[in-house]
Automatic annotation (TrEMBL):
InterPro entries: FTHF_cligase-like_sf, LUD_dom, NagB/RpiA_transferase-like. This is Lactate utilization protein B/C. Residues 108-208 form the LUD domain. It comes from Streptomyces subrutilus.
Length: 211
C-alpha cells in the first residue's frame, strides 16, 4: 500500500459513510446583462486588451497571412504547433520552422521555441478569460506555459460565452483546464509588475470570424 492509499484510507475512516450530496442552491446571476453575439465579442476584446493581451480580428481567409505577420514581427525562427492545429493556419511556404508537440520534449527544449500557436476551448466575455482544455488543437498544458509568446485563436461567436457559469456548463471537468486572463504576470509587495513569470510574457488573441 502506498502512502497515498494510506492517507486516503484514513480520510475515509474519519468521514465515515455519507449520504447523498445535498443539492447546492444556484440562485446567483448566471450572466450580467443581455448581449448579442457581436456585443459579447466586443466585451471579450475590451477585457483582453485591459489585461494587456494583444487582440486581432480576422476571417478564415485572413488568418494565415495574419499569423505569418505576427510571427515575423517577433522575428520568430521556430513555432510550436499542437497535433491537430489546422494545417492552413500556418500555410506560408516561408516562415518559422514548425516544432511539433512531443511528449519527449524537455522544458529546456520548449523554452528555446520562439512562439506557440493554438486554438482554445472557450473564451469568457465578462472576465476576458481564455480557457484551454488540452484539446488536439491546443496540445498539452506545458506547451502554452513555457514559450514566451502565445498566439491563441478563438472562433467567434461559437467559442465565446458571456460568463463563467456558462463556461463551466460546456467544459469537461476531467480535462486539464487552463484559464488565462492576459499574459502571465505577478506583483511583489510594492506592486512592481513582472510579466512572464508563470507563462508567456506576450499573449496575442485572434478573434476568428469577427470581421
Amino acid at each position: 500500500m502506498s502512502s497515498r492509499d494510506r492517507i486516503l484510507a484514513r480520510v475515509r475512516r474519519a468521514v465515515g459513510e455519507r449520504g447523498p450530496e445535498p443539492e447546492i442552491p444556484r440562485d446567483y446571476l448566471r450572466v450580467h446583462g443581455v448581449r448579442t453575439p457581436a456585443e459579447s465579442t466586443d466585451l471579450l476584446a475590451a477585457h483582453l486588451a485591459e489585461y494587456r493581451a494583444k487582440v486581432h480580428r480576422t476571417d478564415e481567409d485572413g488568418l494565415p497571412p495574419l499569423l505569418t505577420r505576427l510571427l515575423a514581427e517577433r522575428g520568430c525562427e521556430t513555432v510550436l504547433v499542437p497535433p491537430a492545429l489546422p494545417p492552413h493556419w500556418l500555410a506560408a511556404a516561408a516562415g518559422p520552422v514548425r516544432i511539433h508537440d512531443r511528449a519527449a520534449s524537455t522544458p529546456s527544449e520548449l523554452d528555446r521555441v520562439d512562439s506557440v500557436v493554438t486554438g482554445c476551448a472557450l473564451a469568457v466575455a465578462e472576465t476576458g478569460t481564455i480557457v484551454l482544455d488540452g484539446g488536439p488543437d491546443q496540445g498539452r498544458r506545458r506547451i502554452t506555459l513555457i514559450p514566451d509568446h502565445h498566439i491563441c485563436v478563438v472562433r467567434v461567436p461559437d467559442q465565446v460565452v458571456d460568463s463563467v457559469p456558462q463556461a463551466l456548463e460546456r467544459l469537461d471537468p476531467v480535462r486539464p483546464l487552463t484559464w488565462i486572463s492576459g499574459p502571465s504576470a505577478t506583483s511583489d509587495i510594492e506592486l512592481d509588475r513582472v510579466e512572464g513569470v508563470h507563462g508567456p510574457r506576450t499573449l496575442e488573441v485572434v478573434l476568428l470570424g469577427a470581421q
